[in-house]
Amino acid sequence: MAEAVRMADREGVDRLSMRRLASTLGAGAMSLYYYVASKEELLDAMIDVVFEEIELPSAEADWQSAMRREALSTRQVLARHPWAISLMESRTTPGPANLRHREAFTACLRKAGFSPLMATHANWLLNSYVYGYALQAASLPFETAHELADMVEDVYLPQLPAEEFPFLSESAAALVAVGYDPAEEFTFGLDLVLAALEPLRDPA
Q1: Quick one: which of 48, 30, 28, 31 has its CA closest to 40?
Q2: I need a labelling partner for 68 at 20 to 30 A (CA). Which of 75, 78, 91, 199 fits?
Q3: CA 104 – CA 139 distance, rounded (Å)
Q4: CA-CA distance, 83 to 8, in Å (whole number)?
Q5: Closest by CA position to 127, among listed 169, 86, 183
Q6: What mean pLDDT, rounded, does the chain reach?
Q7: Could you report the per-residue pLDDT of 161-177, keeping only the tens digit for each?
Q8: What CA–CA distance (Å, rounded) separates 77 from 51?
Q9: Could you tell me if 114 and 200 are in contact, meaning their C-beta atoms sit under 8 angstroms apart?
Q10: Residue 12, by phi and psi: left (phi above 0), alpha (psi -120 to 50) or beta?
């Protein structure tokens, strides 16, 4: 399973096949079917590996701290395995790590005073935010604040004449001046989401 995950990390999940995996492992394709019955079963197991890497919400911490740490962990894991983003919610036969994660996530919200329905709303909202951010981050043409600053100065600003795009030009120059780091956007948005959910629970 580890080799299947590594292959997907290197080449993307679309290029993964039972035959290619068997070749990488130096085994016959048919021998893999002794362990998994199909590619779908293989994907279930691979997604379970991804869920195993995500930190579970702590039962000891307050709900916002627990959800914040889980979201940060999920973002880091999906940065390592970007192929998994579109598959995290698609498995109809989830593995044990997947189910443990969902149980801990729901338990944290329920114990914090969210009703079953409101916990479901919160689950959807938090996952949509984390997965959406991970998907967008995976497609960005830069990785660091320094790389972004270079791109803004060398690529974007020449395309933004101030007389035609005054606000875009001003914003780009201002972000370079303050050393803007887009990685900070994740926690900025996450904290807004958590704060918006707080009034929707019943601590009693």
Answers
A1: 48
A2: 91
A3: 30
A4: 7
A5: 86
A6: 89
A7: 999 999 999 999 898 88
A8: 9
A9: yes
A10: left
